Amino acid sequence: MNIVFADVDGTFQDFGQTIPTINIDAVRALHQQGDHFVFVTGRGYELAQELLETTQLPCDMIYGNGAGLKMANQAPQLRNCLAHVSCQKIIAALEEEDMFYFVHTDKTILVNSVERYQAHFMDLHQKFADELGEKGIGIMKMKEAFFTHDCQNVTDVATYLRNHPDLQVVKVEIMIADDGEKERMRTKLSSSEVFVFESYQQTLEVVNPLATKGTAIQNYLARFPQAKSYGIGDGENDLPMFEVVDVSVAMANASDTVKAACQEQAGLCKDGGLGTYIFQHIIQ
The domain that contains 179 carries what CATH number? Predict the structure, then answer.
């Protein structure tokens, strides 16, 4: 049996773009020959579940960069969430630096009132435009609309969490337009209590050190000790995945650092490189 673990954004689907048909066809072909395809994504549960419902693919899913597991036809399970005390320390550091951040919980995504962050959004809009052109402009418009309308805007995130100790914190995300500031904050936030890594464009994520794609995949593979495993991805948060699979595959749109960590390479995400790789190397 083969098990293919694949990232979503930048691997299975280009951000905000239509999923290449060949990717969906490849997943179905894998299942038809008795193999497994598992989404391994940094997305929270709701966005990840939306992907499954849209594609109608009967896949298992590791979400929240390893904090959550959703087996097909079973209820989602959260594990290795970020301790509230650790989360409060991270929030205090971010507030001190006046950084834009939002907190994923098992119930909602919390953000301080977005009116506070207009200067941050202006800088991010410019950065996305400079780096990605018209595509970046569209992505950042979608993100700002998401923060404004789809997240729960509160007056004070730290106080809200203190008043709701029942909430499970999946991760904290920070968006920073300046690359130097981003790296400085990565260093400042890093500790033995948390794992800090770069995910999508201009974004840092803070999670429980055990909530990585690598740890989640190892736990998943314990059910299938004889399986041959593949890991396909494009980002820094995919590196722990590459370390634990039998065959690591970087997308052509991945950074040179990610490519250097992999054994093989697939084509561009936008061209259906994932599906093409599966058909060429795994489908019999």
Answer: 3.30.1240.10
Task: Domain of residue 126: give its range.
Answer: 84-207
What DSSP designation does 149 have? Answer: I
Where are the strands (E) in the chain, listed by range? 2-6, 36-40, 60-63, 68-70, 77-78, 100-105, 109-112, 152-154, 169-175, 195-198, 203-207, 228-233, 247-250, 264-265
Give the model confidence (pLDDT) of 152-198 as tens digits: 999 999 999 999 999 999 999 999 999 999 999 999 999 989 999 88
Burial class (CB in 10 A: 0-12, 13-18, 19+), 56: exposed
Number of structural domains, the chain? 2
Residue range 202-251, pLDDT digits in tens: 999 999 998 889 999 999 999 999 999 999 999 888 999 999 999 999 99
Distance from C-alpha of 127 to C-alpha of 225, rounded to nearest angstrom: 45
Beta carbons of 29 and 281 less than 8 angstroms apart: no
66-77-13 Cα angle (round to 5)? 50
